[in-house]
Design a protein that fits this description.
This protein is of the alpha/beta class. The chain has seven helices and five strands; from the N terminus they run αβαβααβαβαβα.
Amino acid sequence: MFGRKYVFETKSTRIRRLVIGGFFLFLISLGLITTFIAYIPIYAKMQKGRAAGAFFQKSPDAIAVFTGDKGRIAYATELLKKNPTSKLFISGVHAATSFQTLLNKQASPTTSQELASAGMQVDLDYESKNTFENVRETVQFLKANPELNKVLIISSDYHIMRIDLIISHFMTGPKPEFYFDSVSNSYSNWKDTRKLLKEALKIARTFIQLKVLREEIISEE
């Protein structure tokens, strides 16, 4: 009674189906990318809260700050004032630049005077030229100082996720424990938003190089 039914797809309907399918695939991909980009500063904020809880009534053994953008060293030195027993490690310092020079340029006058007279324990890394090298030199510093078990790393909020990713490449054991604090950006202007977009690409590239291709050394040029 009921015979087979044949549905014939014309060339125009096939093209329309492919276009609609491609459009929805594009929307899904765009949504995923947008969500990932938006999550980068959220991730930094979550890590900031974790660090605040860990160091509520005690100081980190070491504070490591990566140079490269505004406010990082100033923020690190303010934390150092509150945690005078912490060792400070500054990675990515320009050749021939002293700690006092950094203080004079980037810290408040009050902070500069207090830290200069307090005899803080400070180590400077002049070798690093990018984030991968920042992490590498920080890890080497920590291996040379095994008593430093709780480490607070400071950078910009858009930078934290990639730092954490690279740290997982170098360090796999339970010690030392890494925590992250950051200088926040508003992303209300194109300059900050562009930094975030560029960082999203760098995170994706770093993940592929370290976790997929299993490269030991990556170039960020």
